[in-house]
Amino acid sequence: MSQPRADQLDPTVLAALGHLELVARWVVDGFVTGMHRSPRKGFSVEFAEHRPYMPGDDLRYLDWRIAGRADRWVVKQFEEETNARAMLVLDVSASMQWTSDPARLTKLAYAERLAAAVALLLLRQRDAVGLVRFDATLRHVVPPRSQRTQWRRLMAAFSEPGGGNSSDVAGALLQAGRLVRRPGFVVLLSDLLADPEPVADAARTLRARGHEVLVLHVMDPAERDFPDSGEARYRDPESKIEVPASPSDVRTTYQATVQEALAEWRAALGRAGARYAVAMTDEPFGRPLRHLVGVNGRGAMI
Amino acid sequence: MAFLAPLFLTLATLVGVPLLVHLLRRKVGRTVDFPAVRYLTRMEQEHSRDLKLRHRLLLLLRILAVLALALAAARPIAKLAGLGHAPVSLAIVLDNSMSTGIIGNERSVFDSLRADVRGLLSDLSNDDRAWIVTADGRVIGGSAPSLLEALNGLAPLGGRGDLAAATRRAVGLARSGSPRAPVVAIVSDGQRNAFATDSVVNAGTVPVVVLAHGTGSVRNRAVLAARAEPARWTPSGTVNFAISAPDSADWRLLLDGRTVARGAVASAPVGAPVRLTQRLASNSTGWVRGKVEVDADALRADDARWFAVRVASPPMVAVRSEGGPFLSAALSTLVEEKRLERGAEGAARSVTVAGADAAGVRLPVLLTAPLDPVRIGEANRTLTRLGIPWRFGAIARNLVLARAASSDGAPLDTTAASVSVFEGTPVRLRYPLVYSPGGTTAATSAGAPAIPDTLATAGGSAWAVAGEGYVLIGSPLEPEATELPLRAAFVPWVLEALSRRLGEDGRLIEAVPGEHIAGLRGVTGLESPDGKIVGTNSDRLTVPNEAGVYYLRRQAARIGALVVNPEPEESDVVGMGQGAADSAVAAMRTHIAGRDVTPATSVSAWRTLVFDRAAGHGLLLPLVALALAALLAEAWLARH
Question: What are the residue boundaries of the DUF58 domain, all occurrences included (chain A) (predicted)?
Answer without folding.
Answer: 49-260
